[in-house]
Amino acid sequence: MSLLLALILSPLFLGIIVRTKAFFAGRKGQPLLQFYYDLVKLLRKGVVYSSSTTLVFRLSPWLALATVGTALFILPLPGYSGWISFPGDFFVLFSLLGVLRFSLVCSALDTGSSFEGMGASREMFISFLAEPALLLSFLVLAFGLEGYTLKEILSHPFSIGAGRTVALYFISVSLLIVLLAENSRIPFDDPNTHLELTMIHEVMVLDHSGPDLAGILYSSALKLWILGSLWVGISIPVRWGIFYIDVLVFLGSMGLLAVIIGIIESILARVRMIRVSHALSLATVLAGLALLWTIG
Amino acid sequence: MAWILVILPLLFGSLSLILRNHRIVWVLLLFGGILHSVITLWVWIRPIEGNSLVFLDPLGMLILTVTSALFLMVVFYSIGYLKNHKERSSLTVGCLFLFLAAMSLVSVSADMGLLWVAVEATTLASAPLIYFHKNHQSLEAAWKYLLICSVGIALALMGNIFLSYAGGDSIEGLYIPDLLQNANRLDPRWLKVAFILFLVGYGTKMGLAPLHSWLPDAHSEAPSMVSALLSGSLLNCAFLGILRAFGILRLSGLEEWGGNILILFGVSSLIMAALFLIQQTDFKRMLAYSSVEHMGILALGIGVGGLAGTGALLHLINHSLAKSFMFLVAGNILVFYQTKNIDSVTGLIQKTPKTAFLWMAGFLAIAGSPPFGLFMSEWIILKGLIDSEQWVLIIVYLLALFIVFASIAKYIISMTFSDSSPTVEESKGSFRRNEPLWMWVPPFLLASVTLILGLYVPQALLSFLSAIFPGMGGI
Amino acid sequence: MDDILLNLVVVIILLSNIRLLNTSRIPVMIVSVAIQGWVIGSLPLVLHWERFQLTLVFITLITVTIKGVILPRLLNRSMQQAGVIREEEPFVGPTSSLLIGLFLLSLSFWITSTLRSSLPEGLSFIPVLALFTVFNGLFLIVSRKKAITQVIGYLTLENGVYAFGAALAVDHPFLVELGVLLDVWVGVFIMGIAIYHINREFDHIDTDKLSTLKH
Questions:
Q1: What residues contact residue C35 under an 8 Å CB cut-off, 6+ apart?
Q2: pLDDT at B317 over 70
Q3: Tens of pLDDT along A195-229?
Q4: Residue spans per domain, chain B
Q5: What's the CA gap between C53 and B32, in Å, rounded?
Q6: pLDDT tens, B70-95?
């Protein structure tokens, strides 16, 4: 179920973000389903490969899709079990996202373009700083809830214990920062920028075209969906116990998250690279606060 | 009745801040100083009842008397000193009185909370005095003083809060006799934390190393009579805060634990002061570090307890007298030579014989050699140390005293007896040689008392001191 | 409801401390310390809701006014007089300050671990917060150069002390609370004057230039 929802709805999620931004900017904005049209259009196009690229470049979009697809098997609906569930599964989930990033970075380096190399380096820099916050947050949750699968962590985050719920707030903020950083959203990166120098994520995929580009865009949307549903699972812990209501609540929360991201992107400007590290160290420190509050 | 000791200087202080005429202000200063000491004497003859906020117990009386006596001497000196600074008379005298009021309040407080307010008030009243000269250095000193002491005071407030929590439901408020009576019902965990906070907080104000960093600056930049009061009275007042807390700690059966911490601070002050004294270029800073050293001795003596505790209380009196007269004499030298640099002061004995004589006597006194009182009290403390068989402490104590003696001797003898090269003022012909009465009579009187205490310690005084902390033991 | 309120208090105090550590803009610091003043000033009422008394309300009102309104205004004024809005080069940078803050928080957990056991359940997190705030204030004082940021550090320290008072000494509030007010009020007032003088004398308020006096 979670798998299907993700596959179907993740481009819509992006659509909501874009519409929210348009609303705040006073524009009408593109249709909600624009990303579906884009994907279909790209799939119908042919592919152009630069003569300097190798097999790595051709494989990477499909490797990216494959890793995200595998990750989706682990991702549960909040409160329910994923298709695959075992103690420590969140480590595997994050590692799969790491492989996704690795494949994209490899293809960017493979083109030999200096811009793409720079983008790859920045992408790695940001992830390098975001990863500790992400892992620390989930360790705190696993530790505080004494549950080591994603199902247990996301079922009842508020059962973390009296006086410790504060930790959840911190983790929530920390994860939101990580979410924005990992998915190249403002204030870390601007998905709509048109200048190669200022791009981070987008510059890495400049040479991809056609179905390849569609695969990459789709896997990015899925990655946003995965991190988003983790955030929703922790931050909006409403569980009715009835499956269909829970699904509806989950979808509503995802919509809310998309609106929140849209608002954040509307009110914040993109920060300088040097401030990126400040923001991400803040995320790590917040996760650290949560850790102290849980074990102290 | 005890309130009058506080209200009187407060009144005089506000008066002199309002009446800006310097002559009237000087009269007020003289009158107020004499009146305060008369009342203090009167309180000795006719003991008065305390109430829930103020009382006069032996320990408070001791501090109050020392403060009052020093203030009287400083009054005489200040009037002479302020003749050269007429325009600042009003503010200075006003602050001096407020300072006296705050210090009197410290001595008579019967409530740990009120004591805290009073110690805070001393900081606020004395900060403008340190900024007397209105130049960069004095501003720096005043800023450091304000900031560091305020932080210390904030920690002491935390001590108060913890102390009141340690009392739980059984003890209402922070009335000291109440706390002493019910000391064994205090929760020891919270009491210990409270004591550490008091020690750090008031210890900052008292100048215990490593929290002493404001002290040399403030003492060297303040005008000399203020330095005398700071060193002779203010440090005692801060020590009183620690002593009150220690008194409660003793009765709750944590004497040894608290004593060890006091010893730790005392020894570190002794060592730190001795090390810093080896290289000094400024004679007022030298005196300030000597204050740190003596505060260390006080903490050490009280911490060891027994005979050493009594010795420490005697040492408190002696140090106040000796150090304040040293600062007054240092003020004289500053007036003559217009410099605080040790090397620039030469041939004191030929130029200004009376000051030179007092300076030498002061050296013997603060370095702790006979025939002055500090020798007596340091000797008693040493005997107390030997009695309690703290051999390591004895070695550190003697070594530090020796280093201090040697370094101070080096500076003072060179200042007094070196060949008198003509100073700048002398070559300009503006060097003043005459030593008016105000310059040497107050220090001389203080020196005489120290001398007498060195030659003969009245048995009555000793039994009074040893009765302050029951069970500390007399001679 | 009660739980959410307490959580909110904890979060705001922690976050304001974090914000104080990782910003170099003095207006932001002033706002953070003001917000902290609001929350900590209302602690007596929040923590001892069941013992609702008029004196408690009175104290809360005064504290919040002073800590949350008057002092920030004073600070703002001396900031404008001095013409500094940035702590240019602190001894410890923002990111390292954050990590040190984390260390200080763990230190406060460690130090208060024995004391917390003797506190009632609802109060047990206050010593940690208060001690963290105290440490934070001390750290700001030693790691920042400008006189005004040091005063902000001092205010933070006072906030921490007040939090202790609000949690522990609410049975005999008057002396302690009024003591705090006097302390903050007069202390900062005089420090404000001192900043003014430093500014006039030195044309700036860097206290590391105040270093003619050594040893």
A1: C12, C16, C68
A2: yes
A3: 667 777 788 888 888 899 999 999 999 999 999 99
A4: 4-466
A5: 44
A6: 999 888 888 888 887 777 888 888 89
Q: Measured between alpha carbons, how far is B327 from B218 in angstroms, rounded to an integer?
A: 13
Query: What pLDDT, in 10s, does the model give residues B413-431?
Result: 888 887 766 655 555 555 5
Block residue for tokens 């610091």: C29
Asked if C7 lies within 8 A of A165 by C-beta distance, the reply is yes
> Residue B412 carries which side chain, given as an amino acid letter?
I
- Which residues on A lie below 8 Å from C125 (Cβ)? 163
pLDDT given for residue A255 in this prediction? 92
Identify the three-state secondary structure at position C169.
coil
d(CA B57, CA B75): 26
Contact pairs from chain B to chain C, CB under 8 Å: 116
Test A292 with C98 for CB contact under 8 angstroms: no
Write out the residue range of the structural domain in which residue A53 sits. 2-295
User: Do the beta carbons of residue B273 and residue B293 sit within 8 Å?
Assistant: yes
Residue C22 near residue C87 (C-beta atoms within 8 A): no
CB-based contact C194 B116, cutoff 8 Å: no
Name the residue in chain A with its Cα closest to that of C93: A278
Helices A210-235 and A55-74, axial angle in degrees (round to 10): 30
C102 touches chain B (CB under 8 A): no
Question: With contact defined as beta carbons under 8 Å apart, do B243 and B302 qualify?
Answer: yes
- Contact of A38 with A217, CB cutoff 8 Å: yes
10 Å Cβ neighbour count for A236? 18
Nearest to B245 by CA among B170, B145, B166, B154: B166
Residues of A near C (CB-CB distance < 8 A)? 162-163, 165-166, 169-170, 277-278, 281-282, 285-286, 288-289, 292, 296
- At C169, is the pLDDT very low, low, confident or very high (cuts 50, 70, 90)? low
pLDDT of residue A65: 92
* C28 interface with A at CB cutoff 8 Å: no
CA atoms within 13 A on the CB side of A242: 4
Instruction: Return d(Cα B311, Cα B299) in angstroms, integer.
Output: 11
Neighbours of chain B (3+ CB pairs under 8 A): C
> Contact at 8 Å (CB) between B440 and B333?
no
- Other beta carbons less than 10 A from residue B433's beta carbon: 9
Find the helix or strand (DSSP H, E) in which B142 lies. Answer: helix B136-167
Domain count, chain A: 1
| Dist CA B11 CA B30 (whole Å) | 14
User: What's the sign of the alpha-carbon dihedral B189, B195, B198, B203?
Assistant: negative
Beta-carbon contacts of A148 under 8 Å, excluding residues fewer than 6 positions away, are: A87, A88, A142
**Cα–Cα distance for residue pair B278/C132, rounded to 1 Å:** 39
CA angle A73/A78/A79 to nearest 5° reads: 110
Phi, psi of A82 (to 5 degrees): -75, 180
In whole angstroms, give the CA distance from residue C41 to residue C34.
10
Cβ of B157 within 8 Å of Cβ of C171? The answer is no
Question: For tokens 């400083």, what's the residue?
Answer: B74
Q: Do A292 and C102 touch (CB under 8 A)?
A: yes
Residues of chain A with C-beta less than 8 angstroms from the C-beta of C128: 296
Which residue of C105, C116, C136 to mutate against A (max A Cβ within 10 Å)?
Answer: C105
Structural tokens at position C138: 């001390």
Q: In this structure, what token pair is assigned to residue B90?
A: 């009003």
Residue C115 near chain A (CB below 8 Å): no
Higher per-residue confidence, B152 vs A201: B152
- Dihedral sign (CA A235, A236, A241, A243): negative
User: For residue B369, what are its two tokens?
Assistant: 């050699």
Residues B145 and B148: their CA atoms lie apart, in Å, by 6
CA distance B436 to B354: 10
